[in-house]
Amino acid sequence: MxxxxxxxxxxxxxxxxxxxxxxxxLITYKKLADAINIHVRPLRFALEVVQDKCRDLNLPPLTxxxxxxxxxxxxxxxxxxxxxxxxALKTIYGFDWKSKSNPFIxxxxxxxxxWWLDNENERYWMESTNRKDxxxxxxxxxxxxxxxxLVSYVEDGDIVIHYDQNQxxxxxxxxxxxxxxxxxxxxxxxxxxxxxxxxxxxLAFFTYLPTPITLESIxxxxxxxxxxxxxxxPKLEGGPAYFPFQLPESKVIQPSQGMYLSxxxxxxxxxxxxxxxxxxxxxxxxxxxxxKPATRIPPIGTSGESTGQGRExxxxxxxxxxxxxxxxxxxxxxxxxxxxxxxxSYKDGLGYDLEAIKGEVITGVEVKGSRSRVNFVDLQKSEVxxxxxxxxxxxxxxxxxxxxxSINEVAGQLKGSGGRIRYWSNWDAHxxxxxxxxxxxxxxxxxxLG
Length: 450
Known about the structure:
Blueprint: H1 3-22, E1 27-28, H2 29-35, H3 43-56, E2 66-67, H4 85-93, E3 124-129, E4 137-141, H5 146-149, E5 159-164, E6 169-185, E7 196-214, H6 215-219, H7 222-236, E8 245-246, E9 254-255, E10 261-264, H8 266-269, H9 273-282, H10 285-288, H11 315-335, E11 340-343, E12 354-358, E13 361-369, H12 381-392, E14 397-410, E15 413-425
């Protein structure tokens, strides 16, 4: 996490929450994000800084004033348990906050020209690299090099464009998953590079473009790109733009040299409509059109159940279990007031099986079926990625589990019947709830022949 950036935001959050406390009120995540001029997605990282500071100074848990608009209580990252919430509010409201100065007012300043921070629409970046594992993550040593240090400014939910130096083209697009974190790292495309402290950002929904955007096609937009760079100048206040392209007067446009990561103005992103088209055609619809969820539901199972989902070895029976579970899930969703339910399980890597629509809200629904009575279900990586990203972005999800399904042969065909139906709105595929059963190991490039 970029400490300077989040401390700066914590400095802005503090007086807002003090004002809310003085009025004995609450504030939603969205309203607090609007108050400090950022998108709601990265707000949780600055709130963690405020929460830690209150704990270190032995102050009431000020961040408990920030609540979900639907549930009226703080999110899962808050340190106060739900049963202690009302007592925490009494402590906060009764404390003399005027006697405490803002603990985040410090002399240290960030030298980076963060011209984009006050505009939540400026959420685009370009990675320029020849690494073989494109799309795995963003990774760079901690240094003063502009193209490397910008990795620490990527926000959860930002869009990353991938320029492949080997092809000389923009070839893919992805979304940042979570905040940057410090890690011992090494340039993945350099065999002899040493390990050193670095920043890393995980990525999700990595997607190759149907047709790469070549340098030739970028050159054809020379005048438009130069105009965008010119329009950016008033925002820079004399500082660097970290623009993804070099714009020499008498030569053609080239990717900026030495810039592993560069900042893409939103106006430049829209200059290439195939980028947004790829997102809308391939990425989950609820990511493209985010809406607020209802309440969070506890994880699967009760203490009396311990059976895992298991694997159905008979192909015909497995398919009938899946088909029957999907049918029962659709019936459930319609009974819950959803007006339309669409099967999207045929889309590889989407991360869920059904899209349930209620008004303008789209919920991604993962469906699991079993003939056993289950307390665990098997998940694919795409399903975990979607659930975790959706929760981070406050997007509506649902997990439906239909177990104890009976499969019988009727008129020569297998038919499902019965079953117990349970569902969890905005389910949390948190690491603490995941039990590893197998791993996929990538073989190193260096090997010995036998």
